[in-house]
Amino acid sequence: MTSTLARASIAASPPKNVTPSTRGPATAIAPRTRTHLPTHLRPADLLRITDQGVADVLDGRHDTLLPAEWDTTHRWSTRLYADDDLDLWLISWTPGEATELHDHAGSLGALTVLSGSLREYHWTGDDLAVRVLDAGDQAAFPLGWVHDVVNNPTVEVTGPTLSVHAYSPPLTAMSYYEVADAGHLRRTRTVLTDEPE
Ligand SMILES: [Fe+2]
């Protein structure tokens, strides 16, 4: 579970959206570069990495990072992995604690729910849409994604609600928002941070 593995996977994948050269031989095919993205990792890579992160936690590979007892009133998080391209977090969710509407600045993101159930509210452009993410469910967050994540209060679970999150490039900032009366988002503040939610 490293971004080196992710890079190897990308290198092994056939290029998509290729554009044939008009001057060279038929074999001179250059893949279209994704210069509009700040990372070579795709949302699909982040989804796979968070899925592997869940498996690693369940297999006990991060046991030394876990608390002796889960706090049932306050959220908790720990960084599972970090390099120049990626950071990976395990986050616990407790009833009644929301994250506020936020984005992830210049980072793409993804999560896999490890246990319990989450509700995600995300801004569609003129309203908030909600989706439930149960254990095993995944979600990806493209650039510009504004959302709020909460413990799902309608699902009773034993044990903590946990999810594994990946960000690429690693988080450096988050902006927070409120829904204004006119049905648009108003940014309330921007915080430099390398810690999610
Ligand atoms: Fe988030």
TrEMBL record:
**SUPFAM superfamilies given for it?**
RmlC-like cupins
Q: Show the coiled coil region(s).
A: none
- Give the region (Disordered) as residue ranges: 1-35
Citing just one GO molecular function, the answer is: dioxygenase activity
**Family annotation (Gene3D superfamilies):** Jelly Rolls
Q: Does the keyword Glycoprotein apply?
A: no
Which keywords label this protein? Dioxygenase, Iron, Metal-binding, Oxidoreductase
- Cell membrane among the record's keywords? no
Q: Which Pfam families match?
A: CDO_I
Sequence similarity: Belongs to the cysteine dioxygenase family.
**Name of the featured protein:** Cysteine dioxygenase family protein
